[in-house]
Design brief:
Strand content: under 5%
Structural class: mainly alpha
Oligomer: single chain
Largest sheet: 3 strands, antiparallel
CATH architecture of the largest domain: Orthogonal Bundle
CATH topology of the largest domain: Multidrug-efflux Transporter Regulator, Chain: A, Domain 2
Helix content: 55-70%
Strand order of the largest sheet: 1-3-2
Number of helices: 7
Distance between the termini: 73 Å
Number of domains: 2
Length: 153
């Protein structure tokens, strides 16, 4: 089974490795078919210094998907649209994951601020104390009551 698009690092999967003959063998396609797919913009292999086509694992996976779709009777115009929609979907999934990560970070920050507010509200302090000093006393003494007693002493 071919690895999924999310396995491995993006750099590893996009590193041009395979010459056209190897890519053709890996995908079960004729090299000329790979050239046609490149002309139609379905795949964009890298190039060596000698201008030899080099296909990445990501290209091989894409070619296998193209093969599967065409085997199911979808013409190349349909394949192009499907690949475009798939690419946009993957981008949205990445954006969604990034937003989830940001929400988790913000939730943690909000929780921390709320805890600071609660601690500050529980602690008595005079005009010469600031909330950071009160919190430090609370953390050192272990309870709001101990901090209040200290302030009264």
């Amino acid at each position: 089974m071919a690895p999924s698009a999310n396995e491995g690092t993006g750099r590893d999967r996009n590193k041009p490795l395979y010459m056209i003959s190897v890519a053709a063998e890996l995908t079960g396609m004729h090299p000329q078919t790979l050239r046609v797919y490149e002309q139609k913009g379905l795949v964009t292999p890298g190039r060596s210094r000698g201008n030899t086509r080099l296909y990445s694992q990501s290209d091989i996976d894409r070619l296998n998907l193209i093969s599967k779709l065409t085997d199911e009777g979808i013409n190349l115009a349909g394949v192009v649209r499907i690949l475009d929609m798939r690419e946009r979907m993957l981008e949205r999934e990445d954006e969604l994951e990034e937003l989830r990560r940001r929400v988790r970070t913000l939730e943690e920050e909000v929780h921390e601020f709320r805890m600071q507010e609660k601690i500050t509200a529980l602690a008595r302090y005079d005009a010469s104390s600031n909330p950071e000093q009160v919190m430090r006393r609370l953390l050192l003494n272990g309870s709001p009551a101990a901090s209040q007693e200290e302030g009264e002493g």
